[in-house]
Amino acid sequence: MEKIILITGGGRGIGASCALLAAEQGYAVCIAYRADEAAAAEVVAAIRTRGGKALAFQADVSDEDAVKALFAHIDTHLGRLTALINNAGILFPQMRVEQMDAARINRLLSTNVTGSFLCAREAVRRMSTRHGGLGGSIVNISSRAAVLGAPGEYVDYAASKAAQDALTIGLSKEVANEKIRVNGVRPGLIHTDIHASGGEPGRISRLQSSVPMARGGEPQEVARAALWLLSDQASYTTGSFIDVSGGR
């Protein structure tokens, strides 16, 4: 069976590292991106240069019709999906809860939570033995913020990731006897552009003293955990989490 993977938010950071590693491990890769077409194209080109199979597709995962179109595109151009990494996620500038408005909260939840649910739904419809599938694996990229709460900065983001963790646990139990495993990875302070989106590009430098390992992590370190959970080496692991956070 050919290994076919979808990685949402796959053009940059953790998603891009997951895409490159997945291709090295023999997956045909679909990268979903919301806006940065050039970054996604660069990852696709890197995979193809190394002899792998990859394509990119523009989709806002908070939009149900866009998600349906994304999965239909994979069906047509790659085949039946066997793996999903729900990586797409956004955050907004740091602020306290008392400063947040509904528009910010709803926009964040629609991407980080609704998007994960929609992509997981479409993946299950293709992987589940109930629907004629041969099984598969889903990894949700959460965050240590789901446990720590991100006070004074990103409580809304932390809440969205806690919801994603609940999806991981609940869905894993729903589909465990349908040959689908569902797990999560919770990155800590990782060197990606997301900190600039929050208004503090140097956030890791400020906080790394709170990390027992005294450094920020690299996207590749998160990717290795995600790809292990997708692999047959994790064949008896579902509803579980790997914290990639340097002990924080």
How is the CATH topology named? Answer: Rossmann fold
Strand residue percentage: 15-25%
CATH structural class: Alpha Beta
Quaternary organisation: single chain
Please report the number of helical segments. Answer: 9
Helix residue percentage: 40-55%
Give an account of the 3D structure.
By secondary structure, this protein is α/β, with parallel strands linked by helices. It has one domain (4-244): NAD(P)-binding Rossmann-like Domain (Rossmann fold). The chain has 9 helices and 7 strands. It has a 7-stranded parallel β-sheet, sandwiched between helices. Helix 1 runs parallel beside helix 2 and helix 3 runs parallel beside helix 4. It starts with a strand and ends with a strand. The mean pLDDT is 96.
Attribute tags:
248 residues, alpha/beta, Rossmann fold, 9 helices, 7 strands
Brief characterization of the structure:
With 248 residues, this protein is α/β, with parallel strands linked by helices. Helix content is 45%, strand content 15%.
Which helices and strands occur, and which strands form pairs?
Layout: E1 4-8, H1 13-24, E2 28-33, H2 37-49, E3 54-58, H3 64-77, E4 83-86, H4 102-127, E5 136-141, H5 145-148, H6 155-175, E6 180-187, H7 194-197, H8 203-207, H9 219-230, E7 241-244
Parallel strand pairs: 1-2, 1-4, 2-3, 4-5, 5-6, 6-7
